[in-house]
Amino acid sequence: CTIDTDLEILIPDSYVENIAERMVLYTRFENYDNEEKLAAFHQELIDRFGPMPRQVEDLFTTIRCRKIGIDLGFEKMSLKSNILRCYFINKNDSPYFESSIFQNIISFIQTGTNKAKLKQVGTNFLLIAQPMDNMDAMYRFLKQMKDEVLAKKEK
After folding, report:
1. What is the pLDDT of residues 13-25, one digit of tens each?
2. What pTM does this model have?
3. If DSSP states are collapsed to H, E and C, what string results for 89-147?
4. Torsion over CA: 59, 65, 70, 75 (sign)
């Protein structure tokens, strides 16, 4: 799952001056597959470099959103102009569209939120949610959807 955004999501030069060190840190972001490891890495950066600027906080949030997107079956997510677009798998005959996860996402859109709708563009389906004015709003929305979708799946 990739995330595309018009927000500034990076480690600024003013936070980590050494470019080689920044590259190592970007690489390390890809290695955190659970919240505990990500939280420990977050604390390590604060300990090493001081209070975290918004762009780096948003980078952590992006990693969390990506993990949720994978859990929900999105191929790509885009947050631009305060609109979140979540793209489902690009194969209409995929078994995903018969899955309980997909059915529960539809149920969530119908009853769990007033921010989202399903849209078909050509042969592709996507979920559109707005307003999403920052990465924190995106994370809260995705987390709520995941919690409700997976809770229904377990029943």
Report:
1. 999 999 999 999 9
2. 0.90
3. CCCCCCHHHHCHHHHHHHHHHHHHCCCEEEEEECCEEEEEECCCCCHHHHHHHHHHHHH
4. negative
